[in-house]
Structures are given as structure tokens and as C-alpha cells.
Amino acid sequence: xxxxxxxxxxxxxxxxxxxxxxxxxxxxxxxxxxxxxxxxxxxxxxxxxxxxxxxxxxxxxxxxxxxxxxxxxxxxxxxxxxxxxxxxxxxxxxxxxxxxxxxxxxxxxxxxxxxxxxxxxxxxxxxxxxxxxxxxxxxxxxxxxxxxxxxxxxxxxxxxxxxxxxxxxxxxxxxxxxxxxxxxxxxxxxxxxxxxxxxxxxxxxxxxxxxxxxxxxxxxxxxxxxxxxxxxxxxxxxxxxxxxxxxxxxxxxxxxxxxxxxxxxxxxxxxxxxxxxxxxxxxxxxxxxxxxxxxxxxxxxxxxxxxxxxxxxxxxxxxxxxxxxxxxxxxxxxxxxxxxxxxxxxxxxxxxxxxxxxxxxxxxxxxxxxxxxxxxxxxxxxxxxxxxxxxxxxxxxxxxxxxxxxxxxxxxxxxxxxxxxxxxxxxxxxxxxxxxxxxxxxxxxxxxxxxxxxxxxxxxxxxxxxxxxxxxxxxxxxxxxxxxxxxxxxxxxxxxxxxxxxxxx
Length: 505
Description:
6-stranded antiparallel β-sheet; 38% helix
């Protein structure tokens, strides 16, 4: 008898594949519980690339009622051990006390070809850490996270992933009644700075040490042999965070709510809420409508990350040495935090050199990059489009630069920078065709602008889910020319200027 097609086979990871290492830490770290589930769930969208990361077949979800129920919070696969973890943190620079997984639930940790991965539901109901919230997510927030986490992955930015999303007719009240949805998130770990802050703040030093040892063993084994493993961890997290900030700034990505409980210990982009990609280049841009004082404005993101790393360092003090009053400890901590600025600058300049097509490094490159960014800021020039058109810059005498030049009101200012740029390219004997092709592999044509997400959301709210999957496919190839998706790379419509996103988005 011939085997049935793969899509008709019931799919479930083997029970023995679930390792659930975090669940072995003990009840001080989490509450074991079941998801609340939703009525009449249906698939919203799925990421074939994320499924591949897990080693799952691309069509794992097709005609698969058990998977739909599990990833909507209505059932479990054998071997899963669902739990909500506890953490604390600083929100908008103020100590917020105990927080935790208020609308997230870790289903378990799965062995995959790419190492152990945690599988987490977001929007599956209340937990002990919901703080008067309902623990639910809605279509708009779910769609935004699904699209952006996968988009950033394909842009080469460290991030948590999104495997799929489901939706339900269950009404959820935000500013208005909305449809419930659940996103399945994937990451090697969802541990945050706030996990360490929680145990340090409450004087639970034995648990803090236990958490440190766990993170070192599972995620930073090279730090275990250091004379001071906690210091070594702090140094590694500092460098990873600096490089992450460089990616965000080079790409024009605004996170919007960089609280310490939203900072990944692995240096991943985590917790997608009121994020946004820059349209017009504006260093002062605030993407979070709730951020009235602009703490998390685009240009401030590296500074906030630096502040958050100091909060992490403070939390690690009890497991570093005699205590913060010990001058040697203070100096040792400062030494591990000190590389942040140099690491950020080096990585940012590396990324911007690539975006400008520079194949060699010269001392005045930083000035050239800074002048380019100031020119964009002065005119609020569309950052994705200007960056992509720069890929087609030609050093040939009399070359037509009008597609790029016309983006700037002050043409003379652009001409002055263009002449300097052309001279720099000629210094390294840059070949236009070769450089242009190289730049198009690092400067995306497609990013998740707010209006694209909004259009997908509005269609989904009308029951038309196909646009989410289409856009997910486009964003999986951000550097490619896609003739059928030209509209997704066009200037944003005028109405997009009035879009606002907040923490409920």
C-alpha cells in the first residue's frame, strides 16, 4: 500500500523531543498551568521558514486539527509542560516590581536540528502575572508580531521567531471589541534582563545564582570557565546588545518599548508591541504613542540599551563578589560594560559601509556616513527608498542621478555629498555594476512599514486572511526584486502619517 501524502498525516513532535530544561528550575521561577484556549480556532498564517528551523515539514499545519488546537491553547502534545515565568523590571525607567508572563505561556522546549527551542503561545489567556489584564492578544497585535519577527529574521537581525498564528471569534475588549488571536513564538530562550532583576530585588540570592548557572550552562558555556562567570556573562550580553542596537539603527527600526523586561539575555529582538520602521528619516521619531516623553525615541535606543545593561549589572552584583560597595567589584563591572560604545560604533559603521557599498575601510568613512544621515534627517527623506536608490548610484561622468537626487529639496546639498561619495568610491576603484549588485543584497527593498501591516490587519478584521500570508512571503525575500509586489516598496500613502501604535497594538 502506498503511503498517504505528508499533508494528510497527523503531525506532532515526539514526546521524547521535549526537554523542558527551564521547567526543571523549580516553582520559584514559574507557575505551571494550562492555557485558557479559544472557541472555534482557525489558522491565520504560518511561517515556512520558521517551521524549517524546527525541522518540521513545510506543510505540517495542513488539514491538521490537533496542531490547530494545540497552538490555539486548547490542547497539548505529549511531552509539553506549559508554564508562565515570573520576572520583574524597569518600565520607562521606573521600577515596576513583579511582572511576568502576563499573556504568554511557554508550552515547552523542543529539541530541533538547530538546538533546543522554546515554543511559546502569546494570547492564550490569563496567568498569575496578568496584573488585571485578560491575557489575550488581538488580531492587530498578533499580525504585527508575526510579520515583524519574521521580517527581521530575514533581514539578518537577531530576533525571536513566529511559527504561526490562529484566530477565534472570541471577543476581546481593548479600545473596542476585537477578535482574539494567538501567535506561536519560537526562541532558544525567552529569558530577559528582568528575570535577574526579579530575584536580585527580592533578595533571593540562591535563586539568582541558580538562574545564572542555568543560563551559563545552557546558553553561554564559554563563560563558565572564566574567573568570574557572572562578569563574563555581563560582558558577552553587553557586546550582543550593542550589536543588536547597531542593526536596529542601521535598518531604521524602532522598538518602541525598551523596558528591561523586554530585553533578551541572548541579545534578541523580543516583545513586539508599538514598533515601527522609519519612513521619513527622523532621529527624534517616537513610534510608541504611549511614550509621551520620548524615552524610546529612535536616536535614544542605544543609550537606553546602555542604561538597561547597567540595570542588569546591578542585578548581578550579589553573584559577582562581595557587593557593590567593593571598589574592585565596581571596577570589574565597569570594565565589562565599557566595550558597549566601541562595539556599537564598530558594528554600526560596518553595516553602514555595506549599505554604502564600501569594500574597504578608511578613516573618514564615519564622517561620510554621518553626513549622509544628516542629509536624510534635514529633509526627512524616505529612508528605505533613499537607501535602495543609493544602490544604483553611478560614478560615470554625466550619469543620471535624478531618481535619488529628486528625493532631496536641497539639490545642492545632495550634490555636494554625492561628489564626496563618488570620490570615496573612486579611491577604492569601485566598479559600479559590481558594487550595485552587492549593495542590493544588504539594503532591503521591502520592510514592514506601518501602512502595510495596517492594510493586512484591516483585511483580516473583515475575514480576509490571505493578505497576511502574502505579505509574510514578500518580507521573506526583502532584497529581491519582486515585480508583483512593487506597491509594497512604494512611498507610504498620506493617510499613513496619522497611524499611531501604542502598547495595546
